[in-house]
């Protein structure tokens, strides 16, 4: 019965069509993984034998001159074993050993990636913010790490310049392995994109898409009231850990925006910035906020 009602009942204003903008790019496939460096080799000294251990060389002849008999050989082996252990220990201390501590010489940078999401709901009077995001979508270089880092900084700066319009906020972050991080990032991005009926302005990995004006106009209902809110969502995947505060007030929200905006291109793996409404004349009402963003908090 519920499926029938949702399918055949006309949608009210809370379920009206919504336009959205999207900027982003990047790939988790390019994230650094464990890199291999060959283990240090040991060379035999000139003249035969090995630097430490048994082998054939001068130390092996000592029992015939200094220790005598069969028991002297086992005594020498015991002494050589201790000497070899001490030599290896000192070499490890002086040489620093392998970078990762592995016996085969792995160098293992952190394979952990954090996925963070920050959402800000603003009053619709923050029209300059929408213009800034439209401009970024039209001109930004989203095909490089540096370009995406600049987009992130410009977006967070635009938000920080409009604190008087902040009404809602949310922030969350988790540190995961590469595969789990990619899956989580995609789920978050798809979840936000599914709230739009159409993405009316996009720039992803330098692929830009702007639908025709007639198509954009079809999204706006003639009987819609005045726009009330703008919702901006930032989703970032970055190397290492991202600490975001729990959002209880505007100060927590400001801290979260600053922390996610400080991610540099050397850490940023993937980025999605989404906002709604995007099309001129489209609206986002209080009912829409309650319907599509139930977890967001008043700040």
Mind explaining what this structure looks like?
It is a single chain. By secondary structure, this protein is an alpha+beta fold. It folds into two domains: 2-33 and 109-298, no CATH class; 58-106. The protein is built from nine helices and ten strands. The chain has helices at 2-8, 58-61, 69-95, 127-139, 145-160, 178-193, 213-217, 250-261, 286-292, and strands at residues 19-26, 35-36, 106-107, 113-123, 166-176, 198-204, 207-209, 229-239, 268-276, 297-298. Strands 7-6-1-9-8-4-5-10 form an eight-stranded mixed β-sheet, sandwiched between helices. A two-stranded antiparallel ribbon has the order 2-3. A hairpin with a 2-residue loop joins β6 (198-204) and β7 (207-209). The radius of gyration is 31 Å and the shape is elongated. The two termini are 38 Å apart.
How far the N terminus sits from the C terminus, by CA atoms, comes to: 38 Å
Quickly count the domains. Answer: 2
Number of strands: 10
> Number of helix segments?
9
**C-alpha geometry:** elongated
Uncertain ranges = 1-16, 33-70, 95-109
Query: What is the arithmetic mean of pLDDT?
Result: 77
Radius of gyration: 31 Å
Secondary-structure-derived class = alpha+beta
Helix content: 25-40%
* Succession of helices and strands: HEEHHEEHHEHEEHEHEHE
Residue fraction in strands: 15-25%
Which strand order do you get reading across the main beta sheet?
7-6-1-9-8-4-5-10
Q: What profile does the largest beta sheet have?
A: 8 strands, mixed
